[in-house]
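In response to reviewer comment 3 from the previous cycle, which asked for concrete evidence that the modeling workflow produces usable outputs, we include below a single protein chain processed end to end. The sequence was submitted unchanged, and the resulting structure tokens are shown without manual editing.
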Amino acid sequence: MNFNSQQKYLLLIIINLKSINMKRSLKELKGFSIETSDGTKGKIKDFIFDEDNWKVRYLDADFGGFFKDKRVLLPVNVMKEPLWDDQSIPLSVSDKYIENSPSPVDKPTVSREYEKQLMSYYQFGAYWTDEIATPVGSGMYYPSRPIKVPVKEVNENDLDTKLRSFKEVKGYHILATDGHLGHVEDIIADDADWQLIYVVIDTSNWRPWSKKVILLISWLKEISYATKEVSIDVDTDVIKNAPEIDTSKPIEAAFEKALLDYYERVFSSENEH
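The workflow returned the following structure tokens.
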């Protein structure tokens, strides 16, 4: 896990420009309301991301009794600019459009076949067929896109899906190089493109010292959806001394710089020995 001059340069650009884009907690965003173009309000139940790129692709929404007995999955493309102070996200679609949308099979996983139907209905391109390209203005992203994601181990029964939910991964055990460390408490997304950036580790159920720290997704070594475990290439002392995170607030560039500086010192010291 090394840091290069390009990473540090990109981060300094972000800090100097005081970018309005923030890194936000999915746990906090689950409490946000959503509102159709007709004014019908609902709640975000969960976030669905793809395991190949770790980007949020869908909202799992609850509109109470308005769409009775209907599970509503909404592509993130229908979200308009969030109203952060109001904890609300306007949608670009009407009640009728949602009501007539294809319903997923009532099971935990969402098949690729259903995704095709849903994206076709909303008239969006299939994200999984797009060539990997650098987003416009990607020099202003930290970390740069696409990010490195952990090696995955899946159940044989899950081969028909490439999607995972925040609700599913929350609680996965963290395995450091010297033993179990804690669990996944939260995931942090960039509100500019809904790329998942950080995983929040809570040590309270494994260690006498209780702490919440974050690691870049690209620093995770492996995630096992079969055993519900995430492996990381650091020991517990590194996590114990890392900067602590307050997920009730958006992550600002100054904190990211402090985090980068800390891990750079740690791994520079390791390389010297």
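The helical segments are 5-17, 26-29, 95-99, 112-121, 166-169, 236-240, 253-272. We consider this sufficient to address the reviewer's concern, and the full set will be provided in the supplementary archive.
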